[in-house]
Write a structure and sequence with these properties.
The chain has no helices and 31 strands. It has about 375 residues and is mainly β.
């Protein structure tokens, strides 16, 4: 394995050309939920619950917007299961053929909603997941939605009492088409860092080996040179990985590609915050803290910046002051994610804000 390490200093003047504007979100309440987003070919799709003055919700707002022309395309309101209080949505995904959106909430009550990308109208829904059988072998815990695989199936990760479990259902009738438990894993304590439903491969936190869904090693390894805490990772293809590591006010972004590893050192602690469809760009929210005991203010955030990272490097090409947002309750919480959409010499960055709007940035890319 070969390592290349670079370092970056984030100064206040580190910013390439950009334009910024806002996209208002009708009936949005950011303190109760954050929008989920997905983009392709310059079109962004946004879905979020709306709430009344009593913090009750029974409607989902779905919009489409053209980033290039800056024009709203469609807006639909869809009835969803009623609930009260903050709500975390799992993900909004777009099928490979661009025809179907999948909006998923895996907390109770469960909602899997398929939406036409052309009309934004509901196609069909599922209000339970095939994870919680009446069998002591399984736990009734939160599941994680990973999106569509190459065959148009909806793929989820859950767990048995001791092992990860990977399951895909047909998007036409919601019948199970794949169900694999990583029974060969020897670890008794584990956390899945990244899973690719198409290649059936996964990485675990604090583990240098790649595994098949069955738990057998694939033979690929990612020797770690950074002792920091794993913050998350994005898969960049069959075996490629972009991993984020953090300690107090410093961190590292590591690219693993074709048995060659490149590390970017940062003067802040990064958390992953989005990736482009073509995997060429990723995002992180990077913070600094004074350190020390929490009761003495050691966990106070001093600075918080959005970093746009070119995956092939990796290298930081743009930064913007921004806080990491999330929503949910003490039982079920999800961090938000930005959308990154390369288009015609620019990279569009769309991020949630603390107001009822999205912040849209057009970042000029210098090759």
């Amino acid at each position: 394995m070969k390592w290349i390490i670079t370092a970056v200093v984030l100064s206040s003047g580190f910013c390439w050309g950009q334009t910024r504007y806002a996209l208002p979100l009708i009936k949005a309440q950011p303190e109760l939920t954050v929008p989920t987003m997905v983009a392709r070919n310059g079109i962004i799709y946004v879905a979020y619950r709306s709430f009344d003055w009593l913090h009750r919700s029974e409607q989902l707002q779905v919009i489409s917007y053209d980033l290039i022309s800056r024009k709203g395309l469609l807006h639909q309101t869809i009835s969803v299961p009623k609930l009260s209080g903050a709500r975390a949505s799992e993900k909004l995904a777009l099928s490979r053929d661009g025809e179907t959106l999948a909006y998923v909430e895996t907390g109770s009550p469960v909602l899997v909603l398929l939406i036409s990308a052309k009309s934004l109208s509901e196609m069909r829904r599922l209000q339970s997941l095939p994870f919680h059988e009446d069998n002591d072998r399984y736990e009734a815990g939160p599941s994680h939605f990973y999106g569509f695989d190459d065959e148009g199936n909806l793929c989820f990760r859950s767990s048995t009492r001791t092992k990860p479990r990977f399951l895909c259902v047909n998007s036409s009738d919601f019948k199970v088409v794949a169900d694999t438990e990583a029974s060969a894993l020897k670890q008794r304590i584990w956390r899945v860092l990244n899973w690719n439903p198409t290649t059936k491969r996964l990485w675990l936190e604090n583990d240098d080996k790649q595994y098949w869904e069955s738990g057998e090693p694939t033979g690929e390894e990612l020797p770690s040179i950074v002792p920091e805490l794993d913050q998350g990772a994005y898969g960049l293809g069959n075996n490629d990985l972009l991993a984020f590591y953090a300690m107090v006010s410093k961190g590292t972004v590591v690219l693993y590609r074709s048995h060659r590893n490149q590390a970017l050192e940062l003067p802040c602690s990064p958390s992953p915050y989005g990736i482009s469809n073509d995997h060429s760009y990723a995002a992180a929210v990077c913070i600094t803290q004074p350190g020390g005991l929490p009761e003495a203010g050691g966990d106070r955030v001093l600075t918080s910046d959005f970093l746009l990272i070119r995956s092939d490097g990796p290298s930081v090409i743009w930064r913007q002051k921004m806080s990491r947002l999330g929503a949910g309750d003490r039982n079920y919480y999800r961090w938000a994610s930005a959308v990154i959409e390369p288009s015609a010499g620019n990279v569009w960055v769309v991020a949630p804000t603390r107001s009822a709007e999205l912040a849209l940035y057009g970042v000029a890319v210098h090759e």
